[in-house]
Amino acid sequence: MTEVAVVADVAVAAAELFVESVAGAVAARGRAAVALTGGSSAAPLFTRMRAANLPWAQAQFFFTDERAVPPDHELSNYRVAFEGLLRHVEAGGVHRIRGEAPDLDAEARRYAGDLRDTLGSPPRLDLVLLGLGPDGHICSLFAGEPGSADRGDDELVRHVAAPRHVEPKVARITLLPFLVVTARMVVLQVTGAAKSEVLARTVKGPEDLAGCPAQWIRKASGRSVVVCDAAAASRL
Q1: Each residue of 171-189: pLDDT tens digit?
Q2: Regions of the chain where pLDDT drops below 70
Q3: How many domains does the chain have?
Q4: 48 near 12, Cβ under 8 Å?
Q5: 191: exposed, middle or buried (C-beta count within 10 Å: 0-12, 13-18, 19+)?
């Protein structure tokens, strides 16, 4: 069952869940594994996350997806995470998706191997941080694209073509839904009235994983939380 928390400051509430997840994972298993989001929700969240008093040396950071650009490119999710969070903390490990790799299929396989080598097989993340795209996408699982409804238990990570209907039109490497639905906690941030319809589809619409991949959070085996403001929640 997906929880919905309507809050005044989405980034603050999501950062509190991040602290809860990391502290709990380190206490229970001696390590926390977190997948960081990209998109517009990332930068405000990272600013608040870095102020937390946490055992950063026990935290391993992965990425939900990356665009096919170098790490210093303005479109790079790694660049946003580095500037907003990672250069401010002494993390135990940062596992970058190499968007500049000449063979993105090979890079997807390498990243899946990194997840297995670091977390075991099958790998399980403690926390997946997500934003919600206007078409209902999470990670780089775009609505109507081949594979967005594929759980991906064995593949884990995939190279996907540039989306046809979402900017920027750049090829991506993305985690597949298996890593979302098996995470111990999933947090989806949503703000603004423009996202109210797609959020309603995500939370309570008829199941359509290909048409609204964000519905994968409804299948999470761990805790699944939507943190949204009142405008985004207006159709719930």
Answers
A1: 999 999 999 999 999 999 9
A2: none
A3: 1
A4: yes
A5: buried
Residue 235 lies in a domain: no
Amino acid, single-letter form, for residue 86:
L
Q: Is 170 domain-assigned?
A: yes
Calpha distance 105→156 (Å, rounded): 12
Residue 81: which residues within 8 A CB-CB, separation 6 or more? 36, 42, 46, 61, 63
**Residues 113/164, Cβ–Cβ less than 8 Å:** no
3-state secondary structure (DSSP) of residue 172: strand
Interval 36-50: pLDDT, tens:
999 888 999 999 999
> In which domain, by residue range, is 96 found?
3-228
Cβ(132)–Cβ(199) below 8 Å: yes
What angle (nearest 5°) sits at the alpha carbon of residue 158, between those of residues 117 and 213?
115
Q: How far apart are CA 227 and CA 195, in angstroms?
A: 13
**Element at 66 (helix H, strand E):** strand 65-67
CATH of the domain at 207: 3.40.50.1360
pLDDT at 47: 96
Per the domain annotation, does 212 fall within a domain? Answer: yes
What distance in Å separates the CA atoms of residue 30 and residue 105, rounded to the nearest whole number?
32
In a domain, 234, yes or no: no
Is the pTM for the entire model greater than 0.85? yes
Nearest to 143 by CA among 104, 182, 70, 197: 197
Angular region, 124: left φ>0, alpha ψ -120 to 50, beta rest = beta
